[in-house]
Amino acid sequence: EPEVTQTPSHQVTQMGQEVILRCVPISNHLYFYWYRQILGQKVEFLVSFYNNEISEKSEIFDDQFSVERPDGSNFTLKIRSTKLEDSAMYFCASRTSGNQPQHFGDGTRLSIL
Amino acid sequence: GEDVEQSLFLSVREGDSSVINCTYTDSSSTYLYWYKQEPGAGLQLLTYIFSNMDMKQDQRLTVLLNKKDKHLSLRIADTQTGDSAIYFCAETASGTYKYIFGTGTRLKVLA
Questions:
Q1: Which of A33, A44, B53, B60 is 20 to 30 A from B92, alpha carbon to alpha carbon?
Q2: At CB < 8 A and 24+ separation, what contacts does B79-82 make?
Q3: Mean pLDDT by 10-residue block, N- to C-terminus, for chain A (113 residues)?
Q4: Which DSSP symbol is given to B54?
Q5: Which of A3, A43, A51, A96 should we substitute to test contact with B (largest number of B Cβ atoms within 10 Å)?
């Protein structure tokens, strides 16, 4: 069964450094998402992306964050200058169209030192 | 604003039924979902229900929706040790496809 894949599984970065989290959505999916889960807290929506542009974003998704679909397969989340509070599990998700459910990857655990 | 609440823990004996509850506040929710998260893993879609339905059954899983009370439940029949995980309910409100997740319920199945 096709699945969403995320790399790396764990990323350790110094505070202030830039980090790029990568996702390969399911190949025929059109809508892409990033969520994050701080340890012990809820899974929170960050951003949705469709037709090469952001369709919705949360208050968390400030100017430090950006998303890109650089080619036909990858979907990336960049954090420009990481802070300690960016430490979390980041999940990528994708779906086809209409009201089909989102399918999630296994996540990237981001640790900021 | 939108909010989704779940009880934090549930413990059942192997072979019993588990019932995980969820309440939500957005009456315009169109779809409601259940996801399972095993340790160190991602969110696995279990099942989902459209808001005009009352019930959906899928093998050992039964979803009940009480739209008047904004209450959603997931029943797992014949619970097995492999069902031990965190279960999240999520909703999508009308006009948006982002998910609002609940706090997650940690299900522990005792042998």
A1: B60
A2: B79/B12, B79/B13, B79/B14, B79/B15, B79/B16, B79/B17, B79/B18, B79/B107, B79/B109, B80/B14, B80/B109, B81/B14, B81/B109, B81/B111, B82/B109
A3: 90 97 94 94 94 93 94 92 96 90 95 97
A4: S
A5: A43
